[in-house]
Amino acid sequence: MSRILKILEFNNDNKKCLYIMTKSFRIRNNYSLYEAINHAKFYQLKLEIVVVEPYEENPRNIEFFEQNTIDLVDNLKLFSDSVKYVKRNDKLYDLLAGFNSIFVDKAYLRFDINQYEQIKQKCLTNNINLFTVESNVFVPVSVASDKEEYSARTIRNKINSKLNEYRISVLDNMPTTIGEKEALRILDNFIENKLDNYHLHNDPSLNYTSLLSAYLKYGFISPVTIFDRLAKVNTENKDAFLEELIVRRELAYNFVYFNPTYDQFQYMTYDWAYKSMNQHLKDKREYIYSKEDYINFNTHDPYFNAAMIEMVYTGRMHSYMRMYWCKKIIEWSRSYEEAYDIAIELNNYYFIDGFTPNGYCGVAWCFGKHDRAWTERPIFGKLRYMNDNGLKRKFNIEDYVVKMNEIRKGE
Question: Of 233, 292, 384, 399, which is most buried, counting CB atoms within 10 Å of its CB?
Answer without folding.
Answer: 384
